[in-house]
Design brief:
The chain is an all-alpha fold. The chain has one domain (about 5-55). Helix content is about 40%, strand content about 0%.
């Protein structure tokens, strides 16, 4: 399996989560994989992308 299929970029993440939701998944853990990422910046960016998906 191509790891890019399960380790998306931030831009790809909403689509991938949508695919998982479509088949019944409802809980997700999202972690940045870039070692030098600022956790506060990453969390804010992820919130902007993912909170609209919350049901």
């Amino acid at each position: 399996m191509d790891p890019r299929r399960v380790i998306p970029t931030r831009a790809q993440l909403p689509k991938l989560i949508g695919e998982f939701v479509a088949v019944g998944a409802s809980k997700f853990v999202v972690l940045p994989l870039v070692g030098d990422a600022d956790p506060d910046v990453e969390l804010g960016a992820l919130a902007d992308e993912l909170l609209p998906l919350e049901t």
